[in-house]
Amino acid sequence: MRNIQKIQTRQFIQLQIESVLLVLMLTMSFGVSANHGVNKDKFDGEVVMGYDVVAYFTMGDAIKGSKDISVEWLGGKWFFVNEEHRELFRADPAKYVPQYGGYCSSSYPYGDEHDYANPKAWQIVKGKLYLFAGNRTSNRWDSDNPLVETANKRWEKAKAGLLQQ
């Protein structure tokens, strides 16, 4: 009899935990942060710590841009290594803006939308730039994780709102 009660108690607790997790996931999947922006320095407004977001795609490397070759967009300063990159960005900034606004791609799917990323820890997956807190988090990240897919949908809504500003 005691074993049955223990099993029922465990099942009840497991059901409660699953219910809470489901509510959290649904809340995170439908909510879009109204104040979501791009990852920029609070003092000088450099986006992605001054790294050229176009260079990830064209040069396959994380390269610091020049303050002399820049664009103001979404309230931040975007730096580039050359004029060609700046013009590519101007023509289609949404193509180059990092997923989740340049915040850590490992944290964003779990609800931490403002965890800073290291521009040297990155991946391009399906034509989108993802930044991470470090190489360890980048290596463990799984783009096929259902939470990542949900986070991508949430980010697309947030990005659409940003692009309308």
What does this molecule look like?
With 165 residues, this protein is α+β, with helices and mostly antiparallel strands. The chain folds into two domains: 1-30; 33-163, no CATH class. The protein is built from six helices and four strands; from the N terminus they run ααββααββαα. The strands form two sheets. The protein has a two-stranded antiparallel ribbon. Strand 1 (66-73) and strand 2 (76-80) form a beta hairpin. Helix 1 runs parallel beside helix 6. The relative contact order is 0.14. The model is unreliable at 19-35 (pLDDT under 50).
State the gist of this model.
With 165 residues, this protein is an alpha+beta fold. The chain has helices at residues 2-30, 53-58, 83-91, 93-96, 135-140, 146-163; strands spanning 66-73, 76-80, 118-125, 128-132.
Features:
165 residues, alpha+beta, 2 domains, two-stranded antiparallel ribbon, two-stranded antiparallel sheet, 6 helices, 16% strand
How is the secondary structure organized here?
Blueprint: H1 2-30, H2 53-58, E1 66-73, E2 76-80, H3 83-91, H4 93-96, E3 118-125, E4 128-132, H5 135-140, H6 146-163
Antiparallel strand pairs: 1-2, 3-4
Helix pairs in contact: 1-6
Q: Give the overall pLDDT as a whole number.
A: 80
Q: What number of domains? A: 2
Number of alpha- plus pi-helical segments: 6
Strand content: 15-25%
Poorly predicted runs are: 19-35
Query: What is the helix/strand order?
Result: HHEEHHEEHH
Within the largest sheet, what's the order of strands? 1-2
Please, what is the oligomeric state? single chain
What distance lies between the first and last C-alpha atoms, to the nearest angstrom?
A: 64 Å
